[in-house]
Write a structure and sequence with these properties.
- This protein is mainly alpha-helical.
- The protein is 52% helix and 10% strand.
- It is built from 7 helices and 6 strands, in the order ββαααββαββααα.
- The protein has a two-stranded antiparallel sheet. A two-stranded antiparallel sheet has the order 3-4. Strands 5-6 form a two-stranded antiparallel ribbon.
- A hairpin with a 7-residue loop joins β5 (100-102) and β6 (110-112).
- α2 (36-47) crosses α4 (85-97), α2 (36-47) packs across α5 (114-122) and α3 packs antiparallel against α7 (137-163).
- It starts with a strand and ends in a 9-residue tail after the last helix.
């Protein structure tokens, strides 16, 4: 049986477990279209083609440091790799609404979907970002393809070593 307690207002209440409702922000395509940072990120992914998440961090860092194009992200180096939790959250939002997808093979590169292309037709990123990427397209694309091929080689190396047993005789 539950106890009855007198509360300050004079009402009788049953003590027990209460259900707490927590509001969670819902990500919708309309909210993504309102966010200029996410639209700019979507534009970078569309222009520079399918790329690894790690490559995207490098490209955003280079845009900010070398070409003075600030997309509004704070990018820090963790170890020797640029990383930003803000970029990661925006990528999750773009993946959630279906504007970006990961390739189904083992490399898991990010690529834009047809919904993402339609969204970019509806809402254009800021003109400064478009002009900077168009101006430095070759250098950015070359760097992205180099970083992607390095990441692909690392993934192949890791998967190859996990599949094959060691050929060395045991030490003992």
């Amino acid at each position: 049986m539950a106890k009855k307690d007198k509360d300050k207002g004079g009402k009788d209440e049953k003590s027990g477990k209460e259900l707490k409702i927590i509001s969670v922000q819902v990500i919708t395509p309309e909210k993504v279209l309102e966010n200029e940072r996410q639209i700019s990120l979507l534009y970078v992914i569309e222009k520079l083609g399918p790329m690894h998440e790690k490559t995207l961090f490098h490209i955003l860092k280079e845009l900010k440091d070398e070409y003075n194009v600030d997309l509004g992200y704070t990018i820090r180096k963790v170890g020797n790799v640029p990383y930003s939790p803000e970029v990661k959250n925006d990528l999750v939002a773009l993946l959630y609404v279906g504007f970006v997808e990961t390739e189904p093979n083992m490399y898991r590169k990010l690529r834009i979907t047809s919904k993402g292309k339609d969204a970019l037709e509806q809402k254009k990123p800021p003109a400064g970002i478009i002009s900077a990427i168009e101006k430095h397209y070759e250098a950015l694309r070359n760097k992205a393809s180099m970083l992607d091929s390095m990441q692909d080689a690392e993934i192949r190396r890791l998967t190859r070593t996990m599949r094959r047993p060691s050929r060395r005789p045991p030490l003992f």
